[in-house]
Amino acid sequence: MIKEDIIKRLPYQAPFLFVDGIAAISENGITGHYTFKEDESFYQGHFKDHPITPGVILTECMAQIGLVCLGIYLLKDELSQARKPQIALTSHQMDFYLPVFPNEKVTVISEKEVFRFNKLKCKVKMLNEKGELVCRGTISGMIKV
Amino acid sequence: MTNDELITKLKTIIEPYIQDEVAFKTLSEDTDFINDLKVNSANLVDIILDIEDEFNIRLENEDMEKMLDVKAAMLIINTKLKA
């Protein structure tokens, strides 16, 4: 499965797609990236006259790349046009270290911890363009065809 | 291991994942994980993985499908431990 196919199979679209590209993927993990555009809708309100990417959106970006893209790859043999993945976020624990401003590109690195009985649990971290740690934690979800 | 010892171990494993405290306090062999304890499917997987670690056994998909209540969990664990 090529990387573009994975992004095409994602069940998201603008304004809630937070994956631009995948740099590397294997059975054990994934590295992908996203650039937060200046006109993302949440910047209008978070915060007034002072746009900073909300932590929940950073978590969403990490879940889309680190869990859903990886999950689609892991299920690649069972997927088809008619058989789409069903996904649900079930838990996450996240620590935040640095803010992400409009126009910043972030890299998400996810390592698979467990994928059994349809539950995928990953250790995920996000880096900014300087390679500094933005946030890290653990995200789990259920994913099946 | 006696049944009481096994239930005590199971209760320790299950406790972090339950939603219904009353059903947990009155837990018996007939207690159902999903209907009584309100454990969700993701946490049922956590319980299975914790059972594997605690008893040093490996559970398969068919075990997962059968493991709906405390009685079934005890039967599966005892069967695996004897194998």
Automatic annotation (TrEMBL), chain B:
Carrier domain span: 1-81
Pfam families: PP-binding
Family matches, as Gene3D superfamilies: ACP-like
Name of this protein: Acyl carrier protein
InterPro entries tied to this protein: ACP-like_sf, PP-bd_ACP
Protein origin, superkingdom: Bacteria
